[in-house]
Specification:
315 residues; alpha+beta; Phosphatase 2c, domain 1; five-stranded antiparallel sheet; 11 strands; globular
Amino acid sequence: MDTCLPACLTLSFGKSQVLLTCPTGASHVEKGQPCQDACGASQHFFQGQPYLVLAIADGHGGEKYNQSEIGAHLAVEAARDAATDLVVTLVSAQSNHPTDWARLVKHEANRLGRNLVQHWRRRIEGHAGIKSEEGVSDQDLECIGRYGTTVAMVVMYESTLIAGSIGDSSIFTVEHSEPSGEVRVNDVTPQRDRGVGLATESLVSPNAHHSWQAKAMVIDELIDETELAMVLLTTDGMTDSLEDPKQSIRNLYERAVNDGLDWLKNVLPKQLSRWSDKGVGDDMGCVVMFPIWPVRVRGQSNEDISQEAEGGEQS
C-alpha cells in the first residue's frame, strides 16, 4: 500500500497551517483504478482582506459514473468560485448593514449551495462540450450524470467560518478549552442518509442545491476560553471505515499537537491508507486545517499513530 501513497501537501496561510492528501482506497488499488476523491485549499484577497477556501469532493465511481474523478476535481474548483462570490457579497453587504452581520452571514451561507451547483454545472458543461443555451437534452443530462460527485467546503473570512456540504462528505471541527484541556469534536454538517452514488445526495441529483446543509459560526464568540483548534474535511471513506470517527479525529489532533506538524504530514497518508485497507476500501481524501498552529508539548516523532492514538475500531 505504501508504494501507492501520495504526498501530503502542507500549505501555510498566515498563522494557519493546512495539510491535504488523497490516498487511493484499498479496493481501487486492487482493481487498478484511480483515486476518485479530490481536495484543495487556497487563499485569496479581496479589498486587501484575506479569505481561505477548503474543499473536498468524492466522485461516485463505478461504470455509471465513469467521469466522476473529473466531476470531483471540478467540484473543488467550483467551490472556490462560489466562495469568491460569497466574500464579494459579504464585503459589500457588511458596509451597508454593519449591525446585522450574523443574520447576513447565515443567509449567504444558505445561498452558497445554489451558487456552488451553478458553477459546477457550467464547468461540467464546458468539459463535456454541452451548449446549455441551446437547451439541455436527455442525452446531455445523462452525460452530466457521469460526473457525479459529493462536495464539502469551508470558507474562513475575518472571524467567521462558513461550512456546507452536498452528499456524505463530512466536516468536523475540534474545539479546545483552556484551562480544562477539554477537546470537543463536532460534526458540522451531519448527514441524514448514507449510500452510494445517487443513493446519497449528489451534485447531479435533481435540485441538488436543496440538499445543501450549511452552518456559520463566529470564532470569536466561542464560549469561555474555547478556541477553534482544528477543522477536518473528509470524504465518506473515513467515516464509513471507523467505528467512532470523532474519537479517532480527537486522538489525531492530540497526537499532532504533541508530536508536531512534520509528524502529522508523515503519518496522515499512511494512516488513511491503513483505515481504508481495514475498513470499506474507499478512497480517503482529507483536508486538515489548524487556524493557529499550537505550541508543541514534546519533540517531533516520525512513528505511525499507535493503537492507543487511533482510538476506535475499524468497521
